[in-house]
Design a protein that fits this description.
Shape: globular
Strand order of the largest sheet: 3-2-1-4-5
Strand content: 15-25%
Bound molecules: adenosine monophosphate, glycine
CATH architecture of one domain: 3-Layer(aba) Sandwich
Helix content: 25-40%
Structural class: alpha+beta
Distance between the termini: 26 Å
Number of helices: 16
Amino acid sequence: MLVLHNMANLVEGCYSLIKPYQLLNGGEMMKVLIVGGGGREHAIAWGISRTGGVKIFCAPGNGGTAVEFNNVNIAATDTKALADFAEKERVNLTIAGPEAPLVAGLADEFHSRNLPIIGPPRAGALLEGSKVFAKELMKEAKIPTAEFHVFSNPEDAASFIKKSNRAWVVKADGLAAGKGVIVPESVEEALHAVDRIMVKKEFGEAGARIVVEERLEGYECSAIALFDGRDFLFFDLSQDHKRVFDGDKGPNTGGMGAYSPVPFISSETVEKIKTKVFSRLAEALHKRGIEYRGVIYAGLMMVDGEPYVLEFNVRFGDPEAQPLIMRLDTPLLELLQATWNKELGKTSVSFSTEAAVCVVMASAGYPGAYEKGKQIEGLDEVEKMEKVKVFHAGTTFKEGYFYTSGGRVLGVTALGSNVATAADKAYTAVKKIRWDGLHYRRDIAYQAIHKTG
Ligand code: AMP
Ligand code: GLY
């Protein structure tokens, strides 16, 4: 089992425990392009860098990737410019971080030019791009999910909600930057949600249709796997913290922290997730002729030990990617290459027995309007800590200093012998980092810590 020594210095090259990647292109370095600029993309780049001999580009990247790798000034949604860059630079493999470029056809553009990319074509990206598509596919494939009803006009939705007298969740069909799901506490709030999405069109065209879904009670976890069009390779489970305040209070965010593994989920439950969710999904995609080479992340609600799918995402979770990649023993690049080469059936993945906890540090105001341009201090102190890695998200690097530039700014991630120890270590690091108005949750991983002591 791989032990990660002195994580802070890995950038300088402490790669000896992983065999160097074979050189490609007749002696040229292997080149990898990572699309996106969040903590997830920094973690993917870092995971790949543990294999020596790879030149890593991030488009557009962030302050952390600017310092450790090579940023390219192309927006993640500029599909054509990204493919032009990959062609010109003879990039060997591109990895799509976020969903929006995939829904916009990033992988289709790459495929049409014979450029390898990890991420599904648009037809597969609809798993995340359309909740109606995902729910109908789940129903057809008998993947456990909450009962649902689709509406394309607000009057029908409102009269259904009034008549049914049950607890529902209201979801905009299309992409809404993680804000299109409303969990109302009353019939009035549910009607207000319909009004916001369909009449006021707060999420634009994404709200032309809605899914009204039975409200489930349980605990959530994130299940992530690589798919190669035939087989899938299942990662260890992780758990996110979507609400902004301690105790899961306040509005939803992109995710305020995550940890892995999830010690209170039994191996029988994990088997159910594989057979009832991922196997059935692989079969359903195959049946629809969708060649899916990429990541699938199922947001699950566990109800009495049974997994129910709340949503599918066509990418790694963020922040879930950060603890998962930190725990990965198998070189990430080998896994991604096996995904592209359709070799997942003969590939295995192993994770460190250590746990990892990621605490997200955010700008004042996030998830609402937030401040930017604050100088970040203390990162050099954290770099001296072993088994701690700070993944950057909303940061820029200018003349030797890091500044905040986004809502989620840093993902401070630590390894420890169990979840509680990893959380202690992550918080020790968090306390060394400072900027005006920063905030973070103090209870990341509380469910694992309480349930396992
Ligand atoms: P989604 O983007 O679909 O994962 O939804 C965002 C959040 O809303 C989830 O993480 C859950 O906390 C909550 N949620 C979504 N669907 C349901 C449901 N059917 N029952 C209860 N909570 C839900
Ligand atoms: N962590 C939630 C997400 O990536 O969607």
